[in-house]
Amino acid sequence: MSQFRIAVLVHLLVSPVLVASEEPLPIVLKPGRVFDGVAERPQTDWVVIVRGERIDAAGPAAQVRVPADARVIELPSATLLPGLIDAHSHLLLHPYNEALWDDQVLKEPLALRVARATNHARDTLRAGFTTIRDLGTEGAGYADVGLRQAIEQGIIPGPRVLAVTRAIVATGAYGPKGFDPAFRVPQGAEEADGVDGIVRVVRDQIGKGAD
Fold first, then answer.
1. What is the spatial distance between Cα 102 and Cα 31, in angstroms, rounded to a whole number?
2. What is the phi/psi pair of residue 121, to 5°?
3. Residue 11 parent element (H or E)
4. Stated pTM of the model
5. Domain coordinates in residue numbering, the chain
6. Nearest-angstrom CA–CA distance, 42 and 60
7. How many CB atoms lie within 10 A of CB 73?
8. Each residue of 136-161: pLDDT tens digit?
9. Domain 84-207 is in which class?
10. The domain 8-80: what is its CATH number?
């Protein structure tokens, strides 16, 4: 469990302590339950020891050694669990009952989409997801790279972002569609065909920040 990043609840509780000292003081969390991702049911009477941005130890309270200088936080009604991972998300989209996909790709300014995406990143973290794979910006270019950098630099709150950037599709396979073929309509992903074409596009996207 020591490999898991701390969920947003822990981050909010611990942050004031980190500012006061270069060497973070240990925090002992005593939640009502701990879901460790191994046992089928949540564990009870467990403690979790946090230092900085890492979990030092987790286990039955009777077996975990608590540092003498630790700050203890009682969370009797809370369930603590490792940060969740969403492998298919789109920070730069919003529900289609608010605006159709075509309208988001073709009509919404990039600045508007990025502003909305910052809220999505914050809300995703608050929901307990500490890592996401953003599966394409859907017409917003490399905006997910900028969002990832803003999160890493502490400018905005959000989960760790694995950025796909523009995504890659076969020519003619994606959208928006249904427009006069005389006009070149911006697409929601980057088109590529054949091994050479795909290799070129992959390398280009990696060079611009794709994970």
1. 45
2. -65, -45
3. helix 8-20
4. 0.80
5. 8-80, 84-207
6. 12
7. 17
8. 999 999 999 999 999 999 999 999 99
9. alpha beta
10. 2.30.40.10
